[in-house]
Write a structure and sequence with these properties.
Elements: H1 2-37, H2 60-67, H3 69-102, H4 108-120, H5 127-137, H6 143-166, H7 171-179, H8 184-195, H9 197-213, H10 216-221, H11 230-236, H12 248-282
Helix pairs in contact: 2-12, 3-6, 3-9, 3-11, 4-6, 6-9, 7-8, 9-12
Length: 284
């Protein structure tokens, strides 16, 4: 019986790990195909019998993308907008979450409950009125206006996330710091923020990826080519006119360039996530 049970466990383990491996291969293969195709040129790129590995790897597609000055401008614009949006969003959300979880004042519960309602409201419905409002106050074709929109739409989720995390931090720690003479801001800066690093990093990841990948607002709020973000610029890049041949190699290279900042950002913050999870495992 023990041997039969052991065989069943092994068989179930093989099935589970086999299914997970198959799913991982399906998820990773499009990214792998994008990267390898960016190094292919000419007939190899459009061959009816494609190869998994480039036969003649070339950087020609990347040189073609970089030679287009606007693509570089799009890249810089997206980096600037995503970084500023992330910093502003996390700062505002953390201060608001600290206020809602640590202080008692009239309307606090109403504000906290309205956060979830704002998060459930489809943001796309505000695209048209927001465009009209921006046109009237002169925020069309400005990165400030786009950042303001991203912070506004991303704030409910970040605030909801940080409120839930701040609630897990014992208030006795705040009281001990206050007894030692710390101010409210001192408690927030020296106690709450270090202990809530996993929540802050998670909010920062969502804020950065949301601002980096957003397309609709960037399309309607920014009309000048030199001010466009990378997703919009990539959609317009090398699209050609009627009868023109689509330059798939350049598109593949541009797609890789879009992904690289996200990967770098995740690598930079990944250690904080792991450290925060390890600390949370022993935190009382």
């Amino acid at each position: 019986m023990a041997r039969l049970a052991s065989r069943r466990r092994v068989s179930s383990g093989v099935i589970i790990y086999g299914a997970l491996t198959f799913y991982a291969a399906l998820a990773i293969f499009p990214l792998y195909w994008l990267v390898t195709s960016s190094f292919k040129t000419g007939l190899e790129l459009v061959s009816p019998t494609p190869t998994l590995v480039p036969l003649h790897p070339s950087l020609l597609n990347y040189l073609q993308v970089l030679s287009t000055g606007l693509i570089v401008d799009y890249f810089v614009n997206s980096i600037k907008i995503a970084v500023i949006t992330t910093v502003c969003l996390v700062t505002i959300a953390s201060l608001a979450a600290y206020s809602l979880t640590r202080f008692q004042y009239p309307g606090r519960s109403i504000i906290a409950n309205s956060v979830l309602a704002a998060y459930m409201f489809p943001g796309i419905l505000l695209a048209v009125p927001l465009t009209i409002l921006y046109a009237r106050i002169g925020l069309i074709n400005t990165h400030f206006g786009l950042i303001l929109a991203y912070v506004t739409f991303g704030l409910p989720f970040a605030l909801w996330l940080l409120i839930a995390y701040f609630e897990t931090i014992p208030r006795e720690i705040d009281e001990a710091a206050r007894v030692d003479g710390a101010s409210h801001f001192g408690v927030y800066w020296r106690i709450i923020l270090p202990l809530s690093m996993p929540g802050l990093v998670t909010a920062a990841i969502f804020a950065f990826l949301g601002a980096w990948n957003e397309f609709l607002l960037a399309l309607v709020l920014i009309q000048q080519n030199e001010l466009k973000t990378l997703p919009v610029g990539l959609a317009l890049f090398l699209q050609g006119g009627p009868g023109d041949t689509i330059q798939w190699g350049g598109r593949m290279a541009a797609g890789v360039m879009v992904i690289i900042p996200c990967l770098v950002f995740f690598v930079l913050v990944n250690r904080y996530i792991v450290r925060g999870l390890a600390a949370g495992a022993v935190k009382g």
